[in-house]
Amino acid sequence: MTDETSNKMWGGRFAAGPDAIMEAINASIGYDKRLAAQDIAGSRAHAAMLAATGIVSDRDAEAIREGLLTVLSEIEAGDFEFSPALEDIHMNVEARLKALIGDAGGRLHTARSRNDQVATDFRLWVRDQLDSADAALVALIEAFLGQAEAGADYVMPGFTHLQVAQPVTWGHHMMAYVEMLGRDLGRVRDARARMNECPLGAAALAGTSFPIDREMTARALGFDRPCANSLDAVSDRDFALEFLNVASICAMHLSRLAEELVIWSSAQFRFVALSDRFSTGSSIMPQKRNPDAAELIRAKLGRVMGAGVGLMTVMKGLPLAYSKDMQEDKEQVFDAADTLMLALAAMEGMVRDMTPDPAALAAAAGTGFSTATDLADWLVRVLDMPFRDAHHVTGSLVALAEKKGCDLPDLGLEDMQSVHPEIRAEVFDVLGVHNSVASRTSYGGTAPEQVRAQIARWKEKLQ
Ligand code: ARG
After folding, report:
1. Rounded to the nearest whole angstrom, what is the distance from the C-alpha of residue 231 to the centroid of ligand 1?
2. Where are the beta strands (DSSP E) in 316-397?
3. Is 279 labeled as catalytic in the residue annotation?
4. How are beta strands 272-273 and 355-356 bridged, if at all?
5. CB under 8 Å to 183, separation ≥6 — which residues?
6. Which of 239, 413, 256 is nearest to 329 (CA)?
7. Residue of 327, 328, 329, 332 to test ligand 1 pocket, by largest number of atoms within 8 Å of CB
8. Which SS3 state, helix, strand or coil, does residue 155 take?
9. Quick one: pLDDT at residue 272?
10. With 80 as the cut, is the pLDDT of residue 4 above it?
11. Ligand 1 centre and the CA of 28: distance in Å?
C-alpha cells in the first residue's frame, strides 16, 4: 500500500509524499499555468492522433476532447483550482481531466511524456510571442514612416560622438530606425521559421513503440514538421534562447531610441515635444514634464538581456536529454516577452504622438560648423584641391570663424580669401544647411529625395 499523501501520478513507487520544501522547490504551477491554453491544444492534438492511429478508441478520444474543453473553459473562467501538489500545468490539467471523465482520462498520456509535452507547450507559447512581436514591430515601423514622411525635409544636426557632425534630415533619422526595426522584424521571422518544428511524440527522450503519427500532431498544431531527433526535441531550448536574443537586440534598439527621445525632449534641445499621454509631471516641480516612458524603455533592455544570460546559464553544461534544470526556462522568458511587448507598444505610442519642432531642428542644424565638410568638398570640386589640403584650409576657416565668434556662412568673402585667395562668392551656396542636405543624393543618403525613396521602398515591403 502506498501512503495516501504520495503523488497521484506516480505514487505507485512511493511510500510517502514530498516534504513541504520539496514541493515548494519542485512546483512550477505558479508560473507555468500561463501555458494552459498551449497545453490543452497539445493534448487535444495528441488525443485526436491516438484515436486516428487506433491507439485509443474513438469513444475515449471523444471523452478526452470534451473533458479538455471543459478544463479549458474552467481555466478561462478562473474557476480552476491549481494545485502545487500536482507540480505543473501538465499534471494539473490531467488530474482534472481524470476527475471529469474517469478512466479514459488516464489514456491521454499514452505515448507521451511531460518532457515532449512541455517542450511543445513552450514552443507554442514562444511562437505566439514571435507573432505578437512581428505585429508590434510592423506597427512601430509604420509610426516611423509617418514621422519620416511628414518631416522628410526638416533639417536637423546629425551627430557623431554626440557632437554636431553634418546636417541631416529628420526623415533620414526616422528611417534609420526603420532599417534597424526592419532587421529586428527579419530576425523575428527567421527565428519563427527555425523553431517551428514539433517535439510532441519524442516522448520521454527515445520516441515510443506505439504507432504514433507525428506528422499529424505537428500539422494540427501549426508546425511545419516534427522535430527529427527525439533526444534533441526534448533537450533543446535554443528556440527560447533565440527569442531572447532577438528580443534583446530589439530592446537595445528601443533603448537607443529612448535615449534620443530623452535628449531631444530636454529644454536644451527642444527637438521634439512628447505628448501628454506619454509624459509625466513632478510631485514637487510644477514646470516639469518628464519622459518617463522613454526612460523606462531605455532601462528595460536590462531585464530582457538578463533573461537571455539567465537562460543561457541554465542550459550551459546540461547533459542530454531532459534535466529538471530546464524547468527554470520559463519565468525569464515570460518576463522578457511581457517587457518587450510593453516597450514596443509604449514606443509606438510615443513615436506616433511626438511632434518635432522644425524651427528648433533647423536652428540647431546650422550650429557647430556643420557644413564644414560641404566647404571642403567645394574646394575639392571647384578648385581641384586634394581632399587633405581642402580639409586643412577648411580647418583654418573654422578656426577663423571661431575666433570671430560666428558661424561659417557669416564669414565675409575677404575673410575666406585671407585663408585661400581662390575662394569665390559661390562658396556660400554650399554653406546653407538646406543645400547641404539636398546635395547628399547618394543612395541611402540624407537628401529628401533619397529619404522619400526609402519611405516608398518600405511601404512596398510592408504591403
Ligand atoms: N514542469 C516540468 C518542466 O517545466 C515539466 C517536465 C517534467 N519532466 C520530468 N521528467 N520531471 O520542465
Report:
1. 15
2. 355-356
3. no
4. antiparallel
5. none
6. 239
7. 327
8. strand
9. 96
10. no
11. 9
Q: Reduced to 3 states, what is the DSSP secondary structure of residue 362?
A: helix
If you average pLDDT over every residue of the chain, what do you get? Answer: 95
CA-closest residue to ligand 1 atom 3:
327
**Which atom of ligand 1 sits closest to the CA of residue 322?**
10
Can you give the pLDDT at residue 281?
A: 81
- pLDDT, tens digit (0-9, with 9 covering 90-100), for 80-99: 999 999 999 999 999 999 99
Choosing from 57, 275, 282, 396, the catalytic residue is: 282
CB 124 within 8 A of CB 328: no
Q: Which of 93, 101, 91, 116 is nearest to 64 (CA)?
A: 101
Give the residue among 140, 147, 142, 156 at the shortest CA–CA distance from 446: 156
Average pLDDT (183-199) is 98
| Closest by Cα among 424, 395, 428 to 411 | 428
Looking at ligand 1, which residue's alpha carbon is closest to its atom 11?
324
* Residue 117 beta carbon below 6 angstroms from any ligand 1 atom: no
Q: Cell numbers at residue 186, please?
A: 527579419
Distance in angstroms (rounded) separating the CA atoms of residues 97 and 91:
10
**What pLDDT, on a 0 to 100 scale, did the predictor assign at position 276?**
87
Spacing, Cα 238 to ligand 1 middle (Å): 17
User: Strands 197-198 and 155-160, how do they pair?
Assistant: unpaired
Q: For residue range 100-129, list pLDDT tens digits in order.
A: 999 999 999 999 999 999 999 999 999 999
Q: How far apart are CA 248 and CA 243, in angstroms?
A: 8
Q: How many Å lie between the centroid of ligand 1 and the Cα of residue 327?
A: 6
> What percent of the chain has a predicted confidence (pLDDT) above 90?
90
As given in the structure block, the three cell numbers for residue 253 are 534598439
Q: With bands split at pLDDT 50, 70 and 90, how would you rate the model's confidence at 1?
A: very low
Integer Cα distance of 172 and 158 in angstroms = 10
